[in-house]
Design a protein that fits this description.
- The chain is mainly α and 334 residues long.
- It has two domains: 34-171, no CATH class; 176-324, no CATH class.
- It is built from 15 helices and three strands.
- The chain has a three-stranded antiparallel β-sheet with strand order 1-2-3, with no helix packed on it.
- A hairpin with a 4-residue loop joins β2 (210-212) and β3.
- The longest helix has 40 residues, at 294-333.
Length: 334
């Protein structure tokens, strides 16, 4: 009978101990991270920051100007590349299942990004400073996408098309494109305010975006349109639709719900502050609740959007369950 052994077994003399599975997986993962392909892509990203340093520095300066309404539309730009990287990491097995160098297409797009950047710099007087910045940041995004294709190929780019195109949100939005949705939010918020005042039985006179109440007059100004919350909810709806919904029309529907949700919560905020100022204390209109209370209504908007997402996912799960039951029934019939 063999004696029982206690503790770790010792390998015979002259032989190396067998590698631990955990250590092997960590070493393999580290080797994959520092592979020549990944190193080349990192080098291209670092080179892009030097080549496009002027627009990157300007964008950083604008995005960090907190409290200045003229620069509100830049506040989200810093987060976009990091969100894109997180999405790439979450879907890495699918995106990087088949990788190969895409030298030809990648080189063409890299050159195109440099040309667009140079053209925007030369045409600064014709484009204007703001439009020139948008074009140059667009050139940077093209350069990043080109570097991805150069290192990982077109198949990986097609698999990761959403995280790659998501980078376009880092491009500053021209005023021509941002004014229309903000005008819609302003109008919708005003209508919600009017509805709340009517339901509450508050006497008021309305002239466009202005309300005259017994002790106070307010205007739903452009600054009250909530560009921060609108952009944040738009980004959340895009990411949530990509991660949790499979149907394209459901993803589009989720994004379209952003505007009415913002109008409702923004109207509730303005009407609530107004009623508190009229019936409780006039100082509410200039209190911290007015300046910093938007976060609470943003969370309320997230709850509304989450409810819409749950509703869409519920219909999606019902269809998936029916498909599974149908497939199971057909399989047993065979």
């Amino acid at each position: 009978m063999s004696n029982p052994s206690f503790g770790a077994s010792v390998p015979p003399g002259g032989q190396d101990p067998p590698p631990r599975p955990g250590a092997t997986s960590i070493a393999r993962y580290a080797a994959e991270v520092v592979s020549p392909r990944n190193t080349l892509f990192l080098v291209l990203v670092i080179v892009s920051l030097f080549v496009f340093w002027t627009p990157v520095r300007t964008l950083l300066h604008y995005s960090l100007r907190v409290g200045d309404h003229d620069y509100d539309k830049y506040s989200h730009t810093l987060l976009i590349p990091f969100i894109s990287m997180v999405l790439m990491f979450l879907e890495r097995k699918r995106i990087f299942a088949r990788v190969r160098y895409g030298f030809r297409i990648g080189a063409i797009l890299l050159f195109a990004g440099l040309i667009v950047n140079g053209s925007a710099g030369w045409g600064l007087n014709q484009l204007g400073a703001e439009n020139s910045l948008s074009v140059r940041v667009l050139a940077l995004v093209i350069f990043w996408i080109a570097g991805f294709i150069f290192c990982y190929g077109t198949e990986a780019a097609r698999a990761g098309v959403f995280p790659l195109l998501f980078l376009l949100l880092a491009v500053p939005i021209p005023n021509l494109l941002v004014n229309a949705p903000l005008a819609a939010v302003r109008y919708g918020s005003t209508e919600v305010c009017s509805l709340i005042f009517n339901v509450a039985g508050v006497p008021f006179l309305r002239n466009g975006y202005e309300f005259a109440l017994p002790t106070i007059s307010i205007e739903v100004a452009k600054e009250c349109s909530g560009i921060h919350s609108t952009l944040a909810l738009f980004i959340v709806s895009l990411v949530a639709g990509h991660l949790f919904l499979t149907s394209l029309w459901k993803k589009v529907l989720l994004v379209l719900f952003v505007l009415p949700v913002v109008c409702i919560t923004n109207g509730l905020r303005i009407a609530g502050l107004t009623l508190l100022s009229v019936y409780v204390d006039p100082r509410f209109m200039h209190s911290n609740l007015h300046r910093e209370g938007g976060i609470g209504f943003f969370l309320l908007a997230l709850l509304f959007l989450f409810a819409v997402l749950r509703l869409l996912r519920g219909r999606q799960r019902v269809k998936e369950s029916r498909a599974e039951v149908s497939g199971y029934t057909e399989g047993h019939k065979l």
